[in-house]
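Thread: Modeling a multi-component assembly for a lab meeting

Hi all, long-time lurker, first post. My supervisor asked me to bring a structural picture of a complex we are working on to next week's group meeting, and I have zero experience with this. I have the sequence lines for every component (462 residues in total). Could someone generate the structure of the whole assembly? Inputs are pasted exactly as I received them:
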Amino acid sequence: MVNKGPDLAVLDYGMGNLRSVARAWEHVGARVRLVTQPGEIGAADALIFPGQGAVMDAMALLVDTGFDRVIREWIEADRPFFGICLGLQALFEHSEEGDTKALGIFPGTVRRFRLPFGFKIPHMGWNSVQWEQRTRVDHGLDSERDQFYFVHSFCVQSDDAGLVWGSTEYGGTVFASAINRGNCFATQFHPEKSQAMGLRIYRNFLGII
Amino acid sequence: MLSARIIPCLDVSDGRVVKGVKFVSLRDAGDPVETAQTYESQGADELVFLDITASHEEREIMLDVVERTASHCFMPLTVGGGLRSIENIRQMLNAGADKVSLNSAAIADPTLVERAASRFGNQCIVVAIDAKRVPGTESWEVYTHGGRRATGRDAIAWARDVAAKGAGEILLTSMDCDGTQDGYDVELTRRVSDAVEVPVIASGGAGALSHFADALARGKASAVLAASLFHFGTLTVSQVKEYLHEQGIPVRI
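Re: Modeling a multi-component assembly
Sure thing. I ran the full set together rather than chain by chain. Output:
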């Protein structure tokens, strides 16, 4: 059987397991290629940036591979892009995690949660997302009803209301759990771990390609 | 609001799901992938696979089970049992596990927690603590090797220690309560939860709906784990969630 779905280049910059991300995109009908260097991206329809591990390690590997420039140019050209978890955080200017300079595509700083006693870090588990601006990618999702799987200790609080696609509250902190500008989408949560509702986001994203 | 997590645990031996009552007398009951899918459809928030008799050959079988499960279930999966080295952990994560749980190996070599956390990220590393109350006291001792070996370590101090070394979560099993269905050890759970910043999963003793609420509300657990109760259909995950929702505890429904 020839799979005719959109061709996704998933950035594999050596931070570990990409199986669940790849399987989830395949499940909703995409062709997935793990790319380990910029030359392999070719004529991909979309770039997928799954973030894992610590941001300082990830940034060092992105710079080594040259993916840092690729990501900037890709988003600059408004080509379809989806970032996940650290793949959202790394798009901002700076992260408190290891005092790291990040990609700087969007203004803002990634900060560690500062929470009252009793609120656990990492923010781990299922939480809801208030969809602040409706796009085709959140089509069919309900702010009250649907929850997504999070696991992170750092988060983005952005003043740029146009950038914040969805927001989430934890321990009194409201952070950007999803961002969007043009064809660039990124989520702090893991759609590939969020069962049917997460897969819906991936399926919807394929619809904009 | 962050939801409390309901986590079915599948004890796996030789590629099959079993459940030990007080860690002995096993009953065979099912295919792990099918069981995982059933729990997913019931609304389980995560799954834990414990490879309870992990020998070298069995680990190969487990990698295959994890790989097949991760290909069919789009939810977080933790795998524990017999993982002793960075290489064991790497293989399990590559097979599709989101987190690994370390127990005896963390006691034998506490640097493993530190090394694994820095290599794979804190969020991937769960430390499982099997604790038993020291009779007549308000303290609990850590046991390893499926509860057969006493370590002389205090459970609360050990929890603090592994959290400092980079464990992203603690899976806390009360050996006194495990298999009794008389309820979680709420006191132990609350003590550990108050001692660490990372989330604590309460385990051991679930037998009735109110037990889940006790561990979450009074025990301050972030998640509750149960095995046989779900596995033999005494309660479904959805029943537990409906009950907790009625009690005002946030859950994903």
